[in-house]
């Protein structure tokens, strides 16, 4: 049954490649707001029916699932065995699939301490743009045979292949989690987060918003207690709700948030301010969300991101006046085009979702 | 050809940076895998990025193959020179350019030694986590090329998890800035693609690595088992209890004997397997974990458990594991180190298979195992002076790697494919997959001048070998020994 589906997907891709029919690969349709909209001529390739965990051995710390498997199903299975996806993926809708999670490459609050989606990808099975069924990586932690095509899929927005299966490293759930809050100004908070990130404390998430710094501590009870003693601050009882709402953008800050900019910068970047914008900081200062009441000068946002060693994404509120993703240097853009040509010579897979023509 | 190139190179390189006399080339004829040797046509030792740009442009214009080399400690022949090419040593680019303690990063040149980064960061309470066994000597540029790991990578990751930014030169001398000072980047994850690409896609001239806090404390539990299966189960039990040890190493009986004779570390000579399990972190975390590890080892059937009581004892217990390779060198004139990775549950079967092969070939084999992440290093003991023994050893090694693939694993966990495992790539990957690898190579280096002939075999080579591609999925639970 499931192999029949793969054969169907492969046939669809092969046929589309022949006639250069653009395809819009879709899982749970939870992140359709992200990136450029699919071209109007594109035909939907729905992989949400290609579901199921094909292999999971808790003691091997590896799970393998078909791309259409819902993240919620994977996480509830992992939780039964006291394990988790340590990159804490945002869902943005209950229907979110693991394939979409890999393609979008977004990570949640635990990213700064545990790593990003790409850090946990061990292997993939994909269809390339000619419908060839290919395996890369595997189900083991260490594997340096061949180029790392598996991680190349992360954040590629489906432009290099149709994800069929993915193997991920998983980690144990922490024994205890506790959130503390501290009152300070933005400059102090940025310094505080970075300074403590350089100490061996079990800090698993940080966020600064509305004059409050929130820090989540995760680990053995004794270690969490000791870290709280060192850091000071008050216990914030609704920690779980807080981090979930930041991850899912249901937190108040994100509500009237069009347009919403995402600035990924060097963590020690001083406060970045623009008129009529609010900010929420995550990842020890390396992630700055800017919610704008009116559209600020795009160029100044992009320049600030570059100045501080990173890039800016127009996360929500695309209105065709500004590119969504930071434009690439000519040399990098050329490599992107060459790779696209190799993986998808007919240019049919989600082309234009990430960059025009790619 | 060679004299003409030398002349051109000397127009922009000092005389002492261009070597072409036979006796000067000799030291560069192999890397850490000395069974493979090839004298290069020319060796260049650039000191600046500008010089490298000029060298690459010359290679590009004259279609001359070029092989980059770091410290030359690689174990797969990745830096084996090309007979008609230039070997470029990056050893002179050895400066640590910047340490940013607050942002916890270091910007370094490719020839900087792995351990030198941690030594420089240590006063700030920070270090660079990946610690390949050659870390005293190996260079960070080589680590990037091979995606090197180490004994702590289950918890702290490989090179790919610990670098932020690369400055790369393409074969036509163009600069690519890949990655950034932030935690993610727009577009494709080229940082991951470059890491472990074995010098096939570009030349790294600068690396920004992530530094992490030095743990407050580290403590080690050594457990002895009478049965290798029980030792494997103990590892699984530790993981099942929700513990990610900082290091988890296993040695088999023949290794224990070789090491004990060499070092007298106090290992139990009656043991079939010794497990070393380390916990690090805050004092509270370590105390909590060590107590749980102790209980798990006991309930998993360990016959002897020792917990390090101080730093000196911890280092002494580690010393045995770290001396496994020199110990092999002491009991045998030569040894050949393999690098397969397997799902840990197949450990006992694979070891049984190796034992059968060992008898079949009449060659002894020691097994050391990064047990936490399934990375197995069988050391085949042989004598290169006995005619035919090296060939027999290579065949034995090849069969071990094929067994790893059958078990759902891989032919190389951390040493890279290089020249050594190029034939086994035909077994691990299907022709379509290999052809996509060639496509990736062509996207960066259409003429195929960077490290040609390594890492990815031609389809022609695979066809000639008659090697059969095996996909692990289709052989999910094979009764392993089937060679």
Automatic annotation (TrEMBL), chain A:
The keyword Flavoprotein applies. InterPro entries: FAD-bd_PCMH, FAD-bd_PCMH-like_sf, FAD-bd_PCMH_sub2, FAD-linked_Oxase-like_C, Oxid_FAD_bind_N. It comes from the Bacteria. The keyword Flavoprotein applies. Residues 1-173 form the FAD-binding PCMH-type domain. One of its GO terms (molecular function) is catalytic activity. Pfam families: FAD_binding_4 (PF01565). Keywords: FAD, Flavoprotein. PANTHER family: D-LACTATE DEHYDROGENASE, GLYCOLATE OXIDASE SUBUNIT GLCE. This is Glycolate oxidase FAD binding subunit.
TrEMBL record, chain B:
Its cofactor is FAD. Pfam families: FAD-oxidase_C (PF02913), FAD_binding_4 (PF01565). InterPro entries: FAD-bd_oxidored_4_C, FAD-bd_PCMH, FAD-bd_PCMH-like_sf, FAD-bd_PCMH_sub2, FAD-linked_Oxase-like_C, FAD-linked_OxidoTrans_Type4, Oxid_FAD_bind_N, Vanillyl_alc_oxidase_C-sub2. GO terms for molecular function: FAD binding; oxidoreductase activity. Keywords: FAD, Flavoprotein, Oxidoreductase. It comes from the Bacteria. Transmembrane segments: none annotated. Residues 36-214 form the FAD-binding PCMH-type domain. This is Glycolate oxidase. It comes from Nitrosomonas marina.
């Amino acid at each position: 049954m499931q192999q029949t589906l793969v054969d169907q997907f492969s046939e669809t891709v092969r046929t589309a490649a022949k006639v250069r029919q653009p395809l819009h690969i879709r899982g749970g349709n939870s992140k359709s707001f992200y990136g450029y909209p699919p071209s109007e001529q594109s035909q939907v390739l729905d992989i949400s029916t290609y579901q199921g965990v094909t292999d999971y051995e808790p003691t091997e710390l590896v799970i393998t699932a078909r791309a259409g498997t819902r993240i919620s199903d994977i996480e509830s299975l992992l939780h039964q065995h006291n394990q988790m996806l340590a990159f804490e993926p945002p869902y943005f809708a209950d229907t979110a699939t693991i394939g979409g999670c890999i393609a979008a490459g977004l990570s949640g609050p635990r990213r700064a301490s545990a790593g990003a989606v790409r850090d946990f990808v061990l292997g993939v099975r994909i269809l390339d743009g000619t419908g060839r069924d290919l395996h890369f990586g595997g189900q083991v932690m260490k594997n340096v045979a061949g180029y790392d095509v598996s991680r190349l899929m992360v954040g590629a927005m489906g432009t290099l292949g149709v994800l069929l299966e993915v193997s991920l490293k998983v980690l144990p759930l922490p024994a205890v989690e506790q959130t503390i809050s501290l009152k300070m100004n933005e400059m102090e908070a940025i310094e505080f987060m970075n300074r403590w990130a350089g100490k061996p404390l079990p800090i698993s998430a940080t966020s600064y918003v509305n004059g409050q710094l929130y820090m989540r501590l995760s680990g053995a009870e004794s270690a969490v207690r000791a870290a709280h003693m060192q850091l000071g601050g008050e216990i914030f009882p609704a920690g779980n709700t807080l981090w979930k709402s930041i991850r899912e953008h249901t937190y108040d800050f994100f509500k009237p948030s069009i347009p919403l900019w995402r600035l990924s910068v060097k963590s020690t970047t001083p406060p970045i301010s623009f008129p009529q914008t609010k900010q929420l900081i995550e990842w020890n200062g390396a992630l700055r969300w800017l919610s704008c009441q009116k559209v600020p000068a795009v160029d100044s946002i992009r320049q600030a991101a570059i100045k501080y060693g990173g890039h800016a994404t127009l996360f929500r509120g695309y209105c065709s006046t500004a590119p969504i993703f930071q434009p690439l240097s000519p040399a990098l853009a050329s490599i992107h085009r060459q790779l696209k040509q190799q993986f998808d010579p007919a240019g049919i897979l989600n082309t234009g979702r990430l960059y025009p023509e790619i | 050809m060679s004299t003409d190139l030398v002349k051109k190179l000397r127009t922009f390189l000092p005389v002492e940076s261009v070597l072409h006399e036979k006796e000067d080339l000799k030291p560069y004829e192999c890397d850490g895998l000395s069974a493979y040797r090839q004298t290069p046509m020319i060796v260049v030792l650039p000191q600046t990025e500008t010089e490298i740009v000029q060298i690459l442009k010359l290679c590009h214009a004259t279609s001359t193959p070029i092989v980059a080399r770091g410290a030359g400690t690689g174990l797969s022949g990745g830096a084996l020179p090309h007979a008609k090419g230039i070997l470029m040593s990056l050893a002179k680019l050895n400066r640590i350019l910047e340490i940013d303690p607050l942002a916890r990063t270091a910007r370094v040149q490719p020839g900087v030694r792995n351990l030198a980064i941690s030594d420089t960061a240590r006063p700030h309470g920070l270090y660079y986590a990946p610690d390949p066994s050659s870390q005293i000597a190996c260079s960070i540029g080589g680590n990037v090329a091979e995606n090197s790991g180490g004994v702590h990578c289950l918890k702290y990751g490989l090179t790919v998890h610990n670098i932020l930014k690369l400055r790369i030169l393409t074969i036509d001398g163009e600069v690519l800035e890949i990655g950034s000072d932030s935690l993610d980047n727009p577009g494709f994850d080229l940082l991951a693609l470059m890491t472990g690409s074995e010098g096939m896609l570009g030349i790294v001239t600068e690396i920004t690595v992530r530094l992490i806090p030095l743990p407050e404390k580290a403590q080690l539990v050594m457990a002895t088992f009478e049965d290798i299966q029980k030792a494997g189960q103990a590892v699984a039990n530790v993981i099942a209890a929700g513990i990610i040890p900082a290091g988890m190493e296993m040695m088999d009986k023949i290794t224990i004997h070789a090491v004990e004779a060499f070092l007298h570390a106090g290992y139990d000579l009656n043991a079939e397997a010794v497990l070393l399990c380390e916990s690090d972190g805050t004092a509270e975390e370590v105390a909590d974990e060590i107590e749980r590890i102790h209980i798990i080892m006991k309930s998993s059937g360990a016959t002897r458990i020792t917990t390090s009581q101080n730093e000196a004892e911890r280092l002494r217990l580690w010393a045995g594991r770290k001396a496994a390779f020199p110990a092999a060198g002491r009991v045998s004139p030569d040894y050949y180190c393999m690098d397969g990775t397997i799902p840990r549950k197949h450990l006992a079967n694979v070891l049984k298979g190796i034992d059968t092969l060992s008898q079949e070939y009449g060659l002894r084999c020691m097994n050391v195992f990064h047990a936490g992440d399934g990375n197995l290093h069988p050391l085949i003991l042989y004598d290169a002076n006995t005619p035919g023994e090296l060939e027999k050893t290579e065949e034995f090694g090849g069969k071990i790697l094929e067994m790893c693939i059958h078990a759902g694993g891989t032919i190389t966990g951390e040493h890279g494919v290089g020249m050594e495992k190029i034939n086994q790539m035909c077994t691990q990957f299907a022709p379509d997959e290999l052809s996509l690898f060639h496509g990736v190579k062509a996207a960066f280096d259409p003429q195929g001048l960077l490290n040609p002939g390594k890492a990815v075999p031609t389809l022609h080579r695979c066809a000639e070998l008659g090697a059969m591609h095996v996909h692990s999925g289709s052989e999910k639970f094979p009764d392993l020994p089937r060679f």
